[in-house]
Automatic annotation (TrEMBL):
Keywords: Membrane, Transmembrane, Transmembrane helix. The keyword Membrane applies. It comes from the Eukaryota. The lineage of its organism: Eukaryota, Metazoa, Spiralia, Lophotrochozoa, Mollusca. The chain crosses the membrane at residues 20-39. This is Uncharacterized protein. It comes from Dreissena polymorpha.
């Protein structure tokens, strides 16, 4: 009887050991994927925020760039306009 008791005890211990083994196995991968997706979405929104920031930065950069471009364009346009105006007026 002690033999059978020892047999069932070892049987129980054997499968219980594998139960805890798979328990910690899935426990490990659960937190592994948890932190994986956590950092994934973290960097996703992080870079999305910075892409938005740099997009606005370059948007206003090119906005002011073309603003001053057309500003000087019309500036020289009127400059030459009055230049030829006074040229033909006085000569």
């Amino acid at each position: 009887m002690f033999y059978y008791f020892n047999y069932f005890y070892s049987y129980y211990y054997y499968y219980n050991k594998y139960y805890y083994y798979y328990y910690y196995y899935f426990y490990y991968y659960y937190y592994y994927y948890y932190y994986y997706y956590y950092y994934y979405y973290y960097y996703y929104y992080y870079y999305q925020y910075h892409y938005y920031y740099y997009f606005c930065y370059y948007y206003y950069y090119y906005y002011y760039y073309y603003y001053y471009y057309y500003y000087y364009y019309y500036y020289y346009y009127y400059y030459y306009y009055y230049y030829y105006y006074y040229y033909y007026y006085y000569y």
